[in-house]
Design a protein that fits this description.
Elements (H helix, E strand, L loop, with lengths): L2 E2 L8 H19 L4 H24 L7 H13 L2 H15 L5 E10 L8 E5 L6 H5 L9 H6 L1 E10 L7 H22 L7 E3 L2 E3 L21 E5 L5 E5 L2 E2 L3 H11 L3 H4 L6 H19 L4 E7 L2 E8 L6 H16 L3 E12 L16 E10 L5 E10 L2 E4 L3 E4 L7 H7 L13 E5 L14 E2 L2 E3 L2
Antiparallel strand pairs: 1-5, 2-3, 2-4, 4-7, 5-6, 7-8, 8-19, 9-18, 10-11, 10-12, 12-13, 12-17, 13-14, 14-15, 14-16
Helix pairs in contact: 1-2, 1-7, 2-4, 2-7, 11-12
Length: about 450
């Protein structure tokens, strides 16, 4: 798929074209990731092109009213970003001293939490090396009981430059592209011109430019195809398969009759997102009382409207750690500004003594039907109803609504939005919650854009 990010009729077309060149060269580097020589040429060319975006902008300053004070503000902003200072220095080294000193590494990271707090090691390795050889070099001192049973070893193949050790090189250039893209967009605003749009083979691409940090969706989560997740307990790779299901109006009407739910009560209309979450939870209660269970549903919203709905099937506890990180990338790609989860959970009061103990193993655990709405701005909303079991059957308690707190399971989404994680939540969260193992639902094929997730062992 080709993407054009400039319009030949735009007065700032020369600037737009150079930014588009940078995007194209970034993809050339991505495509040659496992060809060291081709990658070296492509990534260094992209770094050099990135530097010329601002040069060309300055040469067109006569087209931008109030250019000097406006551009000085941007210069100060970009100088304050260490990565952008590195981009300038890297370009100078490439042009005056020779090639960057980049090396192939494999990052080994243990996923045993929704927070990025697990042990992490960068291991010098060949991009084609057998994972079994890499595993032998991973320190074993951190592999405690929880990690051994539920943890995932994530191996990410990375190009790293000696003077920028905390960044994967392709990701560093993608982030730099984002900053430059925001500069170019603001130049159009300053000139009273329409903002540049991205046009693909299939038409105009709509995405939240500011939320994505200026990056195009194709530049977000690009490392996912260079990651290998391994169950520590078995040593076997973790793979995911997905299945999409399109909306079927006839089955949607059948579902409405089955559960006694008014369709208008669950269709988002762009109104208050929190109120919509409450309506959806009321519908979830009716589904639970009719079927006796509820599957794990995730909805992504943009400006109050639903843009993605998916049913997730997680077979093992550790899968959540990998999946929720992938979800965070999807939220950014789609431009989502709110996420709602609905599921059956185990929950218990937070405690400092059992930071990593699974909730299902805690003595004071309770069952509940729960929904959590998180937003890019504002406090989260939690809705929960206890599951009450008796000889007469299953009932639900009254809905309890809680504002604020920290949604532990959605920590990766918070991180993707650039929101801070409260220090008090680093180990416990507002409540200890754990998803119950989901079951297949009669409602499954009535959902719009449903994605089914399951583990496949080779």
């Amino acid at each position: 798929m080709s993407i054009a990010i400039h319009d030949s009729k735009c007065p700032l077309n020369a600037v737009d074209r150079r930014l588009s060149d940078l995007h194209r060269q970034w993809h050339q580097a991505e495509q040659s990731y496992f060809d060291p020589e081709a990658f070296r040429v492509a990534i260094q060319t992209a770094i050099q092109t990135a530097r010329t975006v601002s040069f060309i902008l300055q040469s067109n300053k006569a087209l931008i009213p109030g250019f000097n004070p406006w551009y000085e503000g941007w210069q100060e902003r970009l100088k304050a970003i260490p990565l952008m200072r590195w981009m300038v220095e890297a370009r100078n080294r490439i042009e005056k001293q020779g090639d960057l000193e980049s090396h192939s590494w494999v990052r080994a990271e243990i996923l045993a939490s929704h927070l990025d707090e697990g042990p992490r090691e960068d291991v010098r390795a060949d991009l084609f090396e057998d994972p079994k050889q890499i595993l032998k070099r991973i320190p074993k001192g951190a592999l405690k009981s929880h990690i051994l049973k539920h943890g995932i070893l994530r191996l990410e193949r990375r190009w790293v430059e000696n003077t920028l050790p905390d960044y994967e090189l392709l990701d560093a250039v993608a982030i730099a592209y984002g900053h430059l893209s925001q500069l170019v967009v603001d130049a159009h605003r300053q000139s009273g011109l329409p903002e540049p749009t991205a046009v693909t083979d299939h038409g105009e691409l709509t995405y939240d430019h500011d939320m994505a940090g200026g990056r195009l969706p194709c530049m977000i989560g690009h490392n996912e195809n260079k990651i290998l997740d391994i169950w520590i307990a078995t040593g076997e790779p973790l793979k995911f398969s997905t299945e999409s299901v399109k909306f079927d109006i006839e089955k949607a009407e059948m579902a409405s009759e089955r559960y006694g739910i008014e369709k208008t009560s669950v269709v988002s209309d762009g109104a208050d997102t929190r109120e919509h979450a409450r309506r959806l939870f009321d519908a979830a209660r009716q589904i639970y009382l009719r079927d006796g269970y509820h599957v794990f549903i995730i909805m992504i919203f943009q400006e109050g409207k639903t843009i993605d709905i998916r049913q997730v099937e997680i077979e093992e506890h550790g899968q959540k750690y990998a999946y929720m990180r992938s979800l965070a990338n999807d939220v950014l790609r789609l431009g989502g500004d709110a996420v709602l989860t609905i599921s059956e959970i185990w929950h218990a009061k937070k405690t400092e003594n059992y930071a990593y103990q699974r909730v299902v193993d805690m003595p004071d655990r309770e069952e509940a039907l729960a929904a959590t709405m998180v937003m890019r701005e504002g406090e989260p909303l939690h809705l929960m109803a206890k599951i009450l079991r008796s000889e007469e059957g299953v009932q639900l308690g009254e809905t309890v609504e809680i504002e604020g707190g920290f949604p532990y399971v959605l920590a990766p989404v918070y991180a993707a939005w650039g929101r801070e994680i409260p220090e008090s939540s680093q180990t416990t969260g507002m409540n200890r919650m754990q998803l119950r193992k989901p079951r297949m639902s009669w409602l499954r094929r009535t959902l719009l854009s449903t994605t089914s997730l399951s583990a496949v062992n080779p």
